[in-house]
Amino acid sequence: MGEVASEQKKTGQRLLTIISFLLAMPLAAMLLLHPALMLDDQGHYSHSAIMLIMVGISGGFIYGVGFIPRFWLWKWLFHPIVSFPLMLWGYYTWLFT
User: Fold this and answer.
1) Hey, where are the domains in the chain?
2) Where does the sequence pass through the membrane (predicted)?
3) How do residues 42-88 score in pLDDT, each as one tens digit?
4) CA gyration radius, the chain
């Protein structure tokens, strides 16, 4: 019984790492290849928003490749609970503004 629950947990975690990596990849590519897509209505960058979105992208890559930071602050900052909303904010900024 314990082995089945452990395998389901590993499968769920593996799926979450794949989703994390796949969410981070297009945002990073867009920021590298065509950063003008992140301009606001007035044609300016919101540097604080882009900084937070880049933290989310970093967290997506860090969790997506399976790296687990040792220091508690980095572990918290790059966790999917923090990075997924930041990446979703990036997708919203990219696609709807």
Assistant:
1) 2-96
2) 15-37, 49-69, 76-94
3) 878 888 999 999 999 999 999 999 999 999 999 999 999 999 999 99
4) 16
Q: Which two tokens stand for residue 40?
A: 């606001």
In order of 3, 36, 39, 48, the CA distances from 43 in angstroms are: 55, 9, 5, 15
Contact present, 38 and 94 (Cβ < 8 Å):
yes
* CA–CA gap between residue 54 and residue 83 (Å, rounded): 9
Distance, in Å, from the CA atom of 29 to the CA atom of 96, rounded to the nearest integer, reads 18
- Which residue do the tokens 């314990």 mark? 2
SS3 state at 21: helix
